[in-house]
User: Fold this.
Amino acid sequence: MHRPVTFEPNKLRQKMATDRLMVGSVITSMAPGMMHAAGFAGLDFIRIDAEHMFARDERMEFVLQTALTAGVTAIVRVDRDDDFMARKILELGAGGILFPQLESVEEVVHAVRTTKFPPKGIRGYSSLCWSGGFGAKTGAEWVKWSDSEPLVGIMIETTLTESCLEEMIAVEGVDFVLFGPSDYSMSLGLGRTMKDHPQVLGALKRTIAVGKKLGKPVMMGLGIGNDEIRAYHEMGVRMFELEHDIGIARKIWSEKVDFIESLQG
Assistant:
């Protein structure tokens, strides 16, 4: 007896439509167990970084498939200028794609097109992949699901976006925005991350205002301190990306090492 074919809705997209707050984190360890832990913790999404981490091997497949069983929406940040990476990531079953370092409307339009099948985009067709049920999901219904369910996000992270910010975010097919304070700080010539710099905060607030106007939530990467989370919530951030798994572990371990060493006087 054949297993019934189902086209599951994107849970993060559903939550996004209700204008509820969303919380997630980042996996840099590429450990499937961390994705299960995210599910047990109740996180809505996990971002997998393929921009600064080398993740073009079987580990990507493992963590994406684990996300499906853990009930967490996996969003993969891909490298820029790679038209084929988005297709591969979507074929592996990612719930979302995030494009970094975009600085013009034309670049955003092209990025979105890499995630959609013709005539909406340029994605090559094959259902012989994980998300296509290795051929079990095929034809017009699978194309419609593939074009409408996975989320597409863009990053705002350089001063060059100032002149076309609203137009970039307004591009059809863009679902959410991640503001990148680190690269924005670098583009200002600050030489390091300065999230609290007036110009960086100003850019974030403008991005949030445009996102609110267009009905597209803005995500911000944060630590795990409640005061910082509250402050960004008051600014209008709707998607909270907690620090990555390795960073959280390192900080907690460091704090405990310092405390235990202090017991020795």
In short: The beta strands are 22-27, 45-49, 73-77, 96-99, 151-156, 176-179, 218-222, 239-242.
